[in-house]
Amino acid sequence: MTLRKRLGRGLDALIPSPETADVPTGSVRDVPLKKIDLNPKQPRVNIDTEELDKLADSIRSSGVIQPVLLRPSGEMYELVVGERRIRAARKAGLDAVPAIVRDVPDDKMLELALVENLHRSDLDPIEKARGIRRMIAELELTQEEAGRRLGLQRSTVANALRLLELSEEIQQMVSRGTLSAGHARALLSVQDRERRAGLARRIVEKELSVRKAERLAANGGPAHRAGRIHQPSPNIVQLEHRLSEALGATVEVKPKRKGGKVVIHFTDNDDFERLYELIAGRSAIDYPRRIPA
User: Fold this and answer.
1) Which of 4, 71, 165, 229 lies at 20 to 30 Å from 254 by C-alpha?
2) What does the pLDDT read at residue 174?
3) For residue 165, which of 189, 149, 145, 142 has the smallest C-alpha distance?
């Protein structure tokens, strides 16, 4: 199933996709760029300059193929969907862009902007998390309801929001791409903020893999490495990696001569509830709301 199908008809009902753009809608018009204000609820903060230049070159050659979505705002228009196209069109020197004008309510502005960016994979993990958090707060949604609107599983929403527990320094590393979301999730298992920051810098400096970062974090970070850490076999490492990816959490497999154990790390009650639902396949209603220390 494609991402667009999972996201439902939130966008398709308002703006044609590239595949259906040739279907007459009777509502596409040219709107002067000087009359368009950008979406104040746009979740994207960073726009890749090189990608924007490429889009501007394409627009100079072929024009804006897919119309943007606007809503009326007095004598002006407010952008709902299509910020990259607007910015690139301005860079390309256009005076106007094709647009569809709809009366979009306030509570749909952020949702539609998020859906478009998720569909195009334009948001970095921190922008995505902040957009989802803002959507949940402004629309008073649960994580499950937000996931339904965005075409995401609840566990995916929870994993995204957990990144916002990291310090601003580490969040900036993730936004810049020097740390991946996988690295960032591994860091969450280190409770001490200074050790966490030190481990983040070490990951970047040494270019550690997510797997190595998870193992270092599971041992408390750099300050806890009193001796040599036992190196597991490649098969165990691969198994731990697959389990960690499946659960969105740090997982350790500790085999013994007979049997062994699997350790799954969680950061708080909400994270435990997410893992419970993922493993048990049902709502976490039959365990104490506060996990004893």
Assistant:
1) 165
2) 92
3) 189
pLDDT tens column, 230-273: 566 777 777 877 787 778 777 888 888 788 888 888 766 777 87
Instruction: Spell out the residues 6+ positions from residue 286 whose beta carbon is closer than 8 angstroms to its own.
Output: none
* Cβ count within 10 A of residue 267: 17
- Interaxial angle between packed helices 154-162 and 125-139, expressed in degrees from 0 to 180 and rounded to the nearest 10: 110
Q: How many domains does the chain have?
A: 1
Q: Is residue 209 part of a domain?
A: no
Give the amino acid at 62: S
User: What are 251's two structure tokens?
Assistant: 């997982």
Ranges assigned E (strand) in 11-161: 28-32, 36-37, 68-73, 76-81, 96-101
What's the CATH number where 78 sits?
A: 3.90.1530.30
Reply yes or no on whether 83 is catalytic.
yes
Radius of gyration of the chain (CA): 23
Burial of 99: CB neighbours in 10 Å, binned 0-12, 13-18, 19+: buried
Cα separation, 57 vs 73, in Å, equals 30
When pLDDT is cut at 50, 70 and 90, the band that residue 130 belongs to is confident
Residue listed under structure tokens 């509830």? 273
Token pair of 101 as six digits: 């004008």
For 17-49, give one letter per residue: b (16+ CB within 10 A) or e: eeeeeeeeeeebeebeeeebeebebbbbeeeee
Q: Which domain holds residue 45?
A: 3-123
Q: Which of 83, 111, 116, 214 is catalytic?
A: 83
